[in-house]
């Protein structure tokens, strides 16, 4: 494939003439080609293609076709047809009217190249760079972030189905790479038991019968694993990915009790993220948010939210469903820093904010996190007049705490909590506290002094300041702009299919989400160029009464 970067020429004259005649009132794709341009070039994708071989479509066109395809929700065949037959697509792609286009399989191949070359985010990055050049997005403006759940492209399985399908997949994998070995080894009854898909409707009726059936499958699986990993067995069956999945599923789901295979009870299973929940997509994990559970992934979208900006999505992170939101704040800032698009204020919900991040975002990236921090949940904070930690004066240099009654701590002990966080343990006198008149507002210990756990100074002060800030009207006004990201997620889910994986595996889910964000940006840019104002966050009529006073 010869992919020396080629200059992107103007739209062919005849194509331009026909497009203007066909769309006298304008067309989004035509407007985008005129301003801000093609977004992509060949240079950026040249490393994804070999220097030699059969000629191909130019990478910049494949990138743009991919974005247009997701913007319109087209399958690969439909997108290839649109390249051949639609005048607005030809205009955007700068093609002659007579251009025959390409085979639809080229699009799948292009996506595979993006994943293989680690270029999942290139489509979005190139678009943002063009937007920056045209002043459509700026650094140090406000950003907001939120996440939503994403369902893996799998059939949800109950326990007997999971183990049955896992064993069947391992046998299919072995039948492909080691057919002679498997034919010679497999017990005859297995061809009936594992030849067709394992479905609940075909399993024995009743809990006891299903448990016993599951243990038969378990014994079969262990027998197969013993044969695959036996001394003197050929090496290659053990390299089959489905056999490795079988091994991991069996370790998590079964145990041997005096040589007999038993199911592990639900409480004995490894935690989500350390076990396989679907043999169809071993990377998809069990997720749980409030009352909702799902198997798959989570996607975090970050967008700008200034009134005078386009509101493009500036970052997309796809993670296993089990990953906590708070662990994504850092990676989001790192990605935005690499694009030169760090925010000044970053609006997030409580799941993304903690004391460490309040300090780290400031010191590492000069970003102010605007999101509610966890309130103090101690009984002292909930009791009216209680002496919560904010009522104590801390002298960090002298390593001493003074209580509201003017007594000073007698112990200052740095250490670590059970989660390995740095903490300081402070204690008051066991002689003074029991005799104190305010003891009922301060401690429930009868014979000991008040004890408290402090975070390191910067984190403690940042947390206390954030707790005070979030009670102010100005903070609430600033934070109100975060709600707009809910509309973006709703748009992604309803108009761009964000919630359902099209393909299997984290890299493909990640690429799908980046392309979806790119397509959403295309549609937002087209609306901005057409002068369509930003939508307002909707409130119910009743709630609106409170806002209008
Ligand atoms: S109980 Fe102890 S720490 Fe609390 S106010 Fe009284 S003297 Fe101070």
Describe the structure.
The protein has four domains: 13-119, no CATH class; 159-268, no CATH class; 289-373 and 473-529; 379-459, no CATH class. The protein contains 21 helices and 13 strands. It has helices at residues 13-22, 28-34, 59-72, 76-85, 87-93, 105-116, 122-133, 159-177, 179-185, 190-193, 207-228, 241-253, 329-338, 355-365, 379-382, 439-442, 457-469, 473-480, 484-496, 506-529, 541-547, and strands at residues 143-151, 254-257, 260-263, 285-289, 292-304, 313-320, 345-347, 368-370, 393-395, 400-402, 411-416, 422-427, 451-454. The strands form four sheets. Strands 1, 4, 5, 6, 7 and 8 form a six-stranded mixed sheet that branches. Strand 4 (285-289) and strand 5 (292-304) form a beta hairpin. It is flat and about 90 Å long. The model is unreliable at 1-5 (pLDDT under 50). The structure holds iron/sulfur cluster (SF4). Iron/sulfur cluster is lined by residues 387, 403-405, 407, 428, 432-433, 436, 438-439, 442-443, 449-450.
Which secondary structure elements does this structure contain, and how are they paired or packed?
Layout: H1 13-22, H2 28-34, H3 59-72, H4 76-85, H5 87-93, H6 105-116, H7 122-133, E1 143-151, H8 159-177, H9 179-185, H10 190-193, H11 207-228, H12 241-253, E2 254-257, E3 260-263, E4 285-289, E5 292-304, E6 313-320, H13 329-338, E7 345-347, H14 355-365, E8 368-370, H15 379-382, E9 393-395, E10 400-402, E11 411-416, E12 422-427, H16 439-442, E13 451-454, H17 457-469, H18 473-480, H19 484-496, H20 506-529, H21 541-547
Parallel strand pairs: 1-7, 7-8
Antiparallel strand pairs: 1-5, 2-3, 4-5, 5-6, 9-10, 11-12, 12-13
Helix pairs in contact: 1-5, 2-5, 2-20, 3-4, 3-20, 4-5, 8-9, 8-11, 8-12, 11-12, 13-14, 14-17
Bound molecules: iron/sulfur cluster.
Iron/sulfur cluster binds next to α16.
């Amino acid at each position: 494939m010869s992919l020396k970067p080629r200059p992107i020429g103007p739209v062919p004259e005849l194509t331009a003439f026909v497009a203007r005649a066909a769309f006298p009132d304008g067309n989004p794709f035509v407007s985008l080609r005129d301003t801000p341009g093609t977004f992509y070039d060949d240079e950026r994708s040249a490393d994804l293609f070999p220097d030699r071989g059969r000629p191909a479509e130019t990478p910049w066109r494949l990138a743009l076709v991919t974005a247009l395809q997701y913007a319109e929700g087209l399958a690969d065949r439909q997108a290839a047809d649109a390249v051949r037959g639609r005048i607005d697509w030809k205009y955007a792609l700068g093609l002659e009217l007579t251009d025959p286009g390409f085979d639809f399989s080229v699009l799948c191949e292009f996506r595979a190249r993006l994943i293989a070359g680690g270029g999942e985010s290139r489509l979005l990055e190139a678009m943002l760079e063009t937007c920056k050049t045209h002043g459509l997005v700026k650094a140090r403006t406000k950003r907001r972030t939120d996440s939503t759940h994403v369902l893996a492209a799998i059939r949800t399985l109950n326990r007997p189905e999971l183990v049955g399908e896992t064993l069947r997949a391992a046998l299919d994998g072995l039948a492909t790479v080691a057919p002679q070995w498997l034919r010679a080894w497999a017990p005859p009854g297995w061809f009936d038991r594992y030849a067709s898909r394992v479905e609940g409707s075909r399993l024995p009726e009743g809990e006891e019968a299903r448990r016993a059936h599951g243990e038969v499958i378990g014994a079969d699986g262990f027998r197969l694993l013993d044969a695959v990993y036996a001394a003197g067995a050929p090496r290659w069956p053990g390299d089959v990915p489905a056999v490795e999945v079988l091994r991991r599923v069996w370790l998590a789901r079964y145990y041997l009790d005096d040589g007999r295979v038993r199911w592990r009870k639900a409480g004995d299973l490894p935690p989500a993220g350390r076990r396989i929940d679907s043999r169809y997509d071993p990377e998809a994990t069990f997720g749980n948010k409030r009352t909702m559970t799902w198997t798959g992934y989570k996607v975090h979208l970050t967008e700008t939210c200034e009134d005078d900006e386009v509101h493009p999505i500036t970052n997309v992170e796809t993670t296993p469903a089990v990953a906590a939101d708070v662990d994504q704040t850092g990676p989001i800032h790192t990605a935005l820093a690499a694009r030169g698009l760090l925010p000044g204020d970053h609006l997030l919900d409580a799941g993304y904010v903690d004391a460490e991040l309040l300090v780290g975002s400031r010191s590492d990236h000069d970003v102010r996190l605007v999101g509610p921090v966890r309130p103090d949940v101690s009984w002292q904070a909930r009791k009216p007049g209680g002496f919560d930690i904010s009522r104590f004066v801390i002298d960090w240099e002298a390593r001493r705490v003074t209580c509201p009654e003017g007594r000073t701590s007698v112990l200052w002990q740095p250490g670590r909590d059970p989660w390995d966080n740095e903490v300081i343990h402070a204690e008051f006198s066991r002689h003074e506290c029991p005799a104190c008149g305010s003891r009922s507002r301060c401690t429930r210990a009868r014979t000991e002094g008040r004890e408290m756990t402090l975070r390191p100074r910067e984190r403690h002060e940042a947390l206390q300041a954030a707790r005070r800030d979030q009670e102010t009207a100005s903070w609430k006004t600033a934070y109100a702009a975060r709600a707009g990201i809910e509309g973006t997620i709703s748009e992604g889910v309803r108009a761009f299919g964000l919630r359902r994986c099209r393909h299997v595996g984290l890299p493909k889910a990640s690429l799908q989400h980046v392309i979806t964000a790119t397509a959403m940006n295309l549609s937002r840019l087209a609306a901005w160029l057409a002068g369509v104002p930003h939508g307002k966050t909707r409130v119910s009529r009743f709630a609106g009464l409170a806002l209008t006073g």
